[in-house]
Design brief:
CATH architecture: 3-Layer(aba) Sandwich
Strand content: 15-25%
Order of helices and strands: EHEHEHEHHEHEHHEE
Structural class: alpha/beta
Radius of gyration: 16 Å
Oligomer: single chain
Number of strands: 8
Number of helices: 8
Number of domains: 1
Helix content: 25-40%
CATH superfamily: P-loop containing nucleotide triphosphate hydrolases
Shape: globular
CATH class: Alpha Beta
Largest sheet: 8 strands, parallel
Length: 218
C-alpha cells in the first residue's frame, strides 16, 4: 500500500481498527519515518490506542489521545494537538477513528485540512464476523453512513475479519469473497487483509498485513 501522510482507520465497533492503527504506525516508524498516532475515538473508552502508549513511545512514536482516555469519563472533545497534527506536514499521521457514524463525527472537524492537502488514505476496516457487518451489503451501509457524517471519502478497504483468539487462517480466507464483493459494490480497492501475527504463517509472504495484537486493558 502506498504511504500517504495521513492514514485514517474507520469502521464498525469491533472491526479491529485500533490494532490496525497501532501496528501501521509501528510499521511506518520501522521504515524510519516520523510518526504520530492520534486516538480520536470519542465513543469507546475501553479499548484504545493509548493502551499501547508505552510500546509506541519506546519506538519514538508520538501518541495523542483524549485527556480522559482509560478513565470512566468520556467527553466528546479533542485535544488541540490533533488539529495541529492534521494541519502541519512534517510528520506522518495515523488516526484511530471511533466506530460507526457517531465516532466518525469528529473527523468532520478536520475534513477541510485533509482534503486540501489531498495526501491521505481513508481506510474502511471490516470484520465480517461482527453482527452488523456480516455481508457486503451490510458493511457497505455502515461505510456510507460514516462517509456521510465525516465528509471524507473512503479510498480503500481493509479486511480484518477475525474471531478473536480463536481465529485460524481458514476463517480469514472464508471471508475473501465477501471482501471482494464489498470492493465491487463500493468501487474501491482492497488495500490489505490483516491477520494476527500468529496466523500470518498460514499465508504466503507479503500476502497479508500481520498484526501484533494490542494488550487488552482488562
Amino acid at each position: 500500500m502506498e504511504t500517504k501522510r495521513v492514514t485514517l482507520f474507520c469502521g464498525h465497533y469491533g472491526s479491529g481498527k485500533t490494532n490496525l492503527a497501532v501496528n501501521y504506525a509501528m510499521r511506518l516508524r520501522a521504515q524510519g519515518l516520523p510518526v504520530s498516532l492520534a486516538d480520536v475515538d470519542i465513543v469507546n473508552p475501553y479499548f484504545r490506542s493509548k493502551d499501547s502508549e508505552e510500546a509506541l513511545a519506546s519506538m519514538g512514536i508520538e501518541v495523542i489521545s483524549l485527556p480522559f482516555a482509560n478513565t470512566n469519563v468520556d467527553l466528546p472533545s479533542l485535544p488541540s494537538e490533533v488539529y495541529g497534527l492534521v494541519e502541519r506536514r512534517d510528520r506522518y499521521a495515523v488516526l484511530d477513528v471511533g466506530g460507526d457514524d457517531r465516532g466518525a463525527y469528529a473527523l468532520g472537524r478536520f475534513a477541510s485540512y485533509i482534503l486540501r492537502e489531498n495526501d491521505f488514505e481513508m481506510l474502511y476496516v471490516v470484520n465480517f464476523y461482527r453482527p452488523l457487518t456480516q455481508t457486503a451489503a451490510e458493511a457497505l451501509e455502515v461505510m456510507r453512513e460514516i462517509e456521510a457524517v465525516c465528509a471524507i471519502p473512503f479510498t480503500g478497504i481493509v479486511n480484518n475479519s477475525n474471531l478473536g483468539d480463536e481465529t485460524k487462517g481458514a476463517d480469514v480466507r472464508k471471508t475473501d469473497p465477501e471482501a471482494q464483493k464489498l470492493c465491487a459494490l463500493a468501487g474501491l480497492p482492497l488495500k490489505m487483509t490483516a491477520v494476527s501475527d500468529r496466523c500470518a504463517a498460514d499465508f504466503p509472504p507479503g500476502a497479508v498485513f500481520p498484526l501484533h495484537l494490542q494488550k487488552k486493558p482488562f
